[in-house]
Design a protein that fits this description.
Elements (H helix, E strand, L loop, with lengths): L2 E6 L4 H11 L5 E7 L17 H7 L12 E7 L7 H6 L4 E4 L7 H9 L3 H6 L1 E6 L17 E5 L14 H12 L4 E5 L7 H7 L3 E4 L1 H4 L4 H10 L3
Parallel strand pairs: 1-2, 1-8, 2-3, 3-4, 4-5, 5-6, 6-7, 7-8
């Protein structure tokens, strides 16, 4: 069984709400990409245009995440301050978090950070790391014991939707499974009705799709069609 997760790169808070609303009933989880312009040139809510007022209402608990009663949230933290502001991200109520590790990150320190996360938080929020297409999976082996899943990137330039699928992700999936055979693997980037069968065959159990879903005329129907590929 494959799980399809719609990926949202929100231009602003209203865009986030509209996209979530368009897939209610087809999924119980969406991935929200937080981009601060560090890992890529893309900047999304709440960093874009200084749109912090809506974020403040959530952190102050004056308002919840859009449709929080119907939807779970996976945060894809394509940001430089994920560890520093981890408590704020957690306060927004994600059920899963994806960390992106820059080339300058001390991976041992990052592993220690994961190990030190409060047990209550770990019990309620799954932690994962993203492996980019040019990364060596072996470089992340010492982090695998501290995460619940791995997200393999199916594109070369992260932070932008609609890019061409990079077939090298198949080798990344296989390398992760060689290291940890029972690791849960997501793939984000380049996921479509055409590429999904190859990813499922390679061992991915969760497919994160953005443009393939939200650029379609029928987002709900596209999600269900993708799910059928895994049956």
């Amino acid at each position: 069984m494959i799980t399809i997760i719609p990926a949202i790169m929100p231009r602003n808070f209203e865009d986030l709400k509209q996209k979530i609303a368009s897939v209610i009933g087809a999924t119980d989880t969406v991935q929200i990409d937080f981009c601060d312009g560090t890992f890529s040139k893309m900047i999304t809510w709440p960093f874009r245009d200084g749109d912090t007022a809506s974020l403040k209402t959530i952190l102050d608990e004056d308002e919840g995440m859009p449709y929080w009663q119907e939807m779970n949230f996976e945060f894809d933290l394509i940001v430089a301050d994920a560890m520093e502001y981890f408590d704020k991200y957690i306060h927004m109520g994600p059920t899963r978090i994806v960390f992106h590790i820059s080339k300058n990150t001390n991976t041992q320190k990052f592993a220690e950070f994961l190990e030190g996360i409060d047990p209550y938080v770990k019990e309620n929020t799954k932690m994962g790391i993203a492996i980019e297409i040019n990364d060596s999976v072996a470089d992340f082996a010492h982090i695998f014991p501290h995460v619940d899943f791995v997200q393999c990137m199916g594109i070369e330039h992260i932070g932008f939707q609609g890019q061409e699928f990079d077939e090298r992700v198949i080798n990344q999936i296989q390398a992760v499974l060689d290291a940890v055979p029972d690791m849960e693997i997501s793939v984000d980037g380049g996921v479509s009705l055409d590429t999904a069968p190859y990813l499922i065959e390679a061992g991915a159990t969760r497919l994160v799709a953005g443009s393939a879903i939200f650029n379609s005329l029928d987002p709900v129907g596209t999600i269900r069609e993708m799910e059928e590929l895994g049956n």
